[in-house]
Structure formats: C-alpha cells, structure tokens
Amino acid sequence: AQSVAQPEDQVNVAEGNPLTVKCTYSVSGNPYLFWYVQYPNRGLQFLLKYITGDNLVKGSYGFEAEFNKSQTSFHLKKPSALVSDSALYFCAVRDIYSGAGSYQLTFGKGTKLSVIP
Amino acid sequence: EPEVTQTPSHQVTQMGQEVILRCVPISNHLYFYWYRQILGQKVEFLVSFYNNEISEKSEIFDDQFSVERPDGSNFTLKIRSTKLEDSAMYFCASSVQGLAGTDTQYFGPGTRLTVL
Predict the structure, then answer these.
(1) B35 in Cβ contact with B103 (< 8 Å)
(2) 8-state DSSP, B99
(3) Do B15 and B84 touch, CB atoms closer than 8 A?
(4) If both were cysteines, with which of A4, A67, B49, B73 could A55 make a disulfide (CB 3.0 to 4.6 Å apart)?
(5) Contact between A92 and A26 (Cβ < 8 Å)
C-alpha cells in the first residue's frame, strides 16, 4: 500500500526567507509524486510533479521540489517566500505498480504554510 | 484557463436523505474522479470513471454511492441515504487521460456536505 507523510502540520516563515515543506512517501515500486496547494475556499491547485528524470522539478509560482529516492522524500521548496504563498500544501503519491487502470492519488494530511510579513 | 467547477459549494441535508453533488470537468478531459476530505483528515480517493464506467473504487465507495455522467458535460456523485459520517468536503477532479497515472489530475473547489 502507498502512503504519504507530511510531518509538519504548520510551517511559519518570514517573507523573503527560503521555505521548505516536507513530504516523505512509501510505495512498493517507483513513485509518481505531486504537490498541490489549496487557498481558502478554493480547490486543490496543481503545483508540480515528479514522474522520472531530473530529481529537481520546477513548478508554478517559483516552487520546486527535490526527489530523493534514498530518503523517500519529495520536499517542496521556494527560495524566497511571499505572503501570498500562505496556504495549505498537499503532497500526493501514486505507485506505478498499483495496477493497470489504477490512477488514484494518496494524499498527505497537508501542511499549513504561513508567511509572515 | 479551464477549471473544474462544482455545485453547490455547500450542501446541508438531513440524515437518510439523498444528495447529488455535481461537477463539470474540464472539457477535453476523459478521466473523472471523486475524492473526499473529512474535516481534519486526509484527502481520500473514492472513485475514478472513464468511458461511462467506474474504473476503480475505494472501500469507502459502497452501495450507497453512485456516479454518473448524465450528459456530455456533467459528472455527478449521488449518496442515496446520507449518514452523519458522510459529512466532508467532496472534490471532483479530471485528467486528460489516465496515462498510467502520470497525468495530472485537476481539482474543483469542492462541495462541503453537512449531514445533520
């Protein structure tokens, strides 16, 4: 079975400082990994994904994430945080060995990011 | 930019009543999904739908749940007899193709279902 852990319920960072939101995963085979962001009263918005290739993935709004197979991690990063980045961030995984026709994503519990002016 | 839309944004119902949650996926997408999030818990997969058939469902998706694509644009989730524990935020999502799970699923804003 696949699972995702986001060890921090909340992350606080000062505006202009780098931010990291942590995610670790567990799958039987190789993972497909995703980050989504949720602003208040909005749906889950896609930020970026790792499928294969370069371990550093760049996404929307200046976010990037680094896939680390040995540590089974996919941490979300941004070099300089903005107040507008304050939101709820979800990591999700799909195991490529889940079976044909299985496209379900398994989500972490979410991390609330607060960027302080 | 095309978006997944959902109606209503908030639905309040009495226990035992039937509810239908509606979604309009992105127009050229072929795969559709429902997920739910009980307050304070993880987002959980319910069902995926392709070519007018359920392609996968979770243990949560029991006989009380059904999905339908009644026309070329809408995708609905029906709960026949709601229970208190069905109270949650329900998210619809769609993707262009399944592509063995590499394809990005795009989510709607959610419908908050409150069962009294």
Answers:
(1) no
(2) G
(3) yes
(4) A67
(5) no
Q: Closest partner residue to A105 among B3, B9, B105, by Cβ?
A: B105
Q: How far is CA B13 from CA A27, B23, B60, B82, B94, in A?
A: 38, 18, 20, 8, 26
Q: Which residues of A touch B101 (CB under 8 A)?
A: 32, 94, 96, 98, 102-103
Span A4-31, pLDDT tens digits: 999 999 999 999 999 999 999 998 888 8
Reported as a single tens digit per residue, the pLDDT across A52-89 is 888 999 999 999 999 999 999 999 999 999 999 999 99
- C-alpha A94/C-alpha A47 separation (Å) is 16
DSSP secondary structure letters along B100-113: GGTSPPEE---EEE
Pairing relationship of beta strands B88-95 and B75-79 according to DSSP bridges: unpaired
Asked if A31 has any chain B CB less than 8 Å from its own CB, the reply is no
Q: Which of A95, A103, A111 to mutate to test the interface with B (most CBs of B within 10 A)?
A: A103
| Residue from B10, B107, B112 whose CB has the most chain A CBs within 10 Å, to mutate | B107
Neighbours of B11 (CB within 10 A): 16
pLDDT for the residue B12: 97
Cα B28 to the center of its chain, rounded Å: 18
Name the pairing type of β-strands A73-78 and A64-68.
antiparallel
